[in-house]
Amino acid sequence: MRDQIAKAMMLVRRLRPHNRRPALTSLRMPSPIALFVFATCRSTEPKPANLCTGPLTVAVSADAPPVIRWAPACGVNRLLVLGPDTPVNSVATSWQISSATGSFMPPVSYGSVPDGAVADVPAQTLQSGRSYEVIVYRAGAEIILATGTASVKP
């Protein structure tokens, strides 16, 4: 039996160079804690396909409630509907939504807050025959990265 072990050891020595360690002895398995931290720290939230970075063309339907769309179809983080006869340098909003941590995509129905957004100003009842201005934009670090406006008269 000792002779067989000695022959096997000689064979292993011939097949493996003496200056290298076998590859398997240098591998370490990650700890269960490390695997748990890695798995729970990764975000599973879907990211928008694209964020707005330039001029936007905004369109508002005559539906009740109005549906707001913009092109190109990209992510914004702010939407405002300014009230009728809003004076210059005044922000009398009829509705305002925003997303501090992400963005939302078109279309957006008036009064319906998209997933990931909050209503900063609740939707007010729109008055028939009055003009409203709709502004959609993406802001970041106190600068406007994309913007577009449209008027609607329900």
Could you list some keywords that capture this structure?
154 residues, 3-stranded antiparallel β-sheet, alpha+beta, 16% helix, globular, Immunoglobulin-like, 2 domains
Descriptive overview:
The chain is an alpha+beta fold. The protein has two domains: 2-41, no CATH class; 57-152, Sandwich (Immunoglobulin-like). The protein is 16% helix and 29% strand. It is built from two helices and eight strands; from the N terminus they run H-H-E-E-E-E-E-E-E-E. It has helices at residues 2-15, 32-41; strands at residues 57-60, 67-71, 78-82, 93-98, 108-109, 118-121, 132-140, 143-152. Strands 6-4-3-7-8 form a five-stranded antiparallel beta sheet, with no helix packed on it. The chain has a three-stranded antiparallel beta sheet with strand order 1-2-5, with no helix packed on it. Strand 7 (132-140) and strand 8 (143-152) form a beta hairpin. Mean pLDDT is 75; it is low at 15-27 and 34-48.
SS element count, helices: 2
The percent range for helix content is 10-25%
Mean pLDDT: 75
| String of helices and strands | HHEEEEEEEE
- pLDDT < 50 stretches: 15-27, 34-48
Question: Main beta sheet, described?
Answer: 5 strands, antiparallel
What is the CATH first-level class name of the largest domain? Mainly Beta
Shape: globular
- The CATH topology of the largest domain comes to Immunoglobulin-like
Total separate domains: 2
User: Class by helix and strand content?
Assistant: alpha+beta
Strand line-up in the sheet with most strands: 6-4-3-7-8
